[in-house]
RNA sequence: GCGGAAGUAGCUCAAUUGGUAGAGCGAUAGCCUUCCAAGCUAUAGGUUGCGGGUUCGACCCUCGUCUUCCGCUCCA
């Protein structure tokens, strides 16, 4: 990150706090690392982004329906999904080099070394030992294995290791009010599994025919090792996911289609093309046969904003296996039963929020009529997702202007989010709205009392025009 | 978890070799009535991150602790 970009990122974070978008969690207690709260304008913006996504997915696609699954799920869900085994890796630190390693990586490296030296039998035996110990969660045994094999840190060349500790991706908690009877359950690390386990419920009750999709937004929780970069990487975050079920063999066509469809969605939100790019996954996850990220150029570089994965029939097959319930679909067109393949689109709502904020934030230098310059901070948020659509100001506090202005406010507030303010000079009020991204401000002046017109001021151009009060709502709505 | 840096009002900062905290902006109320943040008046707001120690006396020195930021480590 360059110093300039870093400065911009810091400015965005400060701005987010100062104007009620994002606060750090429990701030009066010095905050909680990697957890954030959304303030009055932040919650509004976040909701608008979520609604826009939801509408694009469910309302505008007749073959996509929504669900709202619980955060708690049966523990076996996470065994089936692979989260329990794949993401509870034993870790170890070297005390001299201060480097941290995954124990299995260290042992695998040693095995590779042995194999290269020609001792394939020893390598195989080592891997077998490791797998047995990993399966038994035998950390003492693993530690012993490191010692026996004289495995050293590649940097310090010493075997001065800490104890083995486990890194858990998932948060757990107790289900059941009596401790002794309680069962460990997890806070979901992704919303997708709530869709998979409900596949048949949804397909049958909504009478869906393949190809069809199930959309869901909701919180997910991950114990990230490094949780930084503001709301980019949080322990508690919100996902917007859609799982699209297709006939086996057609998944890559749908994958391409959704890749394009999702990119178009981003462009329709006003994100500039040059700030978006596809990044193909070279190394695919265990469940995928194609995967791509849509990356956005944040102030700290191009980073993943959304993932589109062709997940094959991995998830449904695994749930079928673990639950013992058939999760097949009868395709009347080809007269066959099969486990559908899945194409997933998964976007982080908080990341999208940060993308909107980063993209719209501008410190603008404006030249006034007398030639002097001035600074303003403006959020160029697309009107359809802006927290406040319209601000209404009486030019002065007297002569009945506040009364008329407030009357207009009450009328407009029935249609969209509005803001009314009397205090301070008119320019100051305009600037405050610029800072929260309000696309339109109208000012009620003395002429308004005469001819029922107001001036409407546009955020980005700062230009004003006089329009009839009667046309106000439709003028604003045309931009939403 | 390790290393480095920093914590004073909502924000940005100040407080002369240690002498019990100030300013600007912001906020609130009022005046002014003005179409792009800059007029006037008043008010509120801080156990100086927290805890111990040294001292007659600590924002300042010292120890511990917490938090944040930067780098490293891990990451479907």
TrEMBL record:
Domain of life: Bacteria
One cellular component (GO) term of this entry: extracellular exosome
Name listed for the protein in its UniProt record: Glycine--tRNA ligase
Residues annotated to bind ATP: 222-224, 232-237, 304-305, 348-351
Pfam family, any one: HGTP_anticodon
Family listed: Belongs to the class-II aminoacyl-tRNA synthetase family.
Sequence positions that bind substrate: 102, 190, 237-241, 344-348
Biological process per Gene Ontology, one example term: diadenosine tetraphosphate biosynthetic process
Keyword hit for Ligase: yes
EC class name: ligase
UniProt xrefs under InterPro entries: aa-tRNA-synt_IIb (IPR002314), aa-tRNA-synth_II (IPR006195), aa-tRNA-synth_II/BPL/LPL (IPR045864), Anticodon-bd (IPR004154), Anticodon-bd_dom_sf (IPR036621), Gly-tRNA_synthase/POLG2 (IPR027031), Gly_tRNA_ligase_bac (IPR022961), GlyRS-like_core (IPR033731)
Cellular localization per UniProt: Cytoplasm
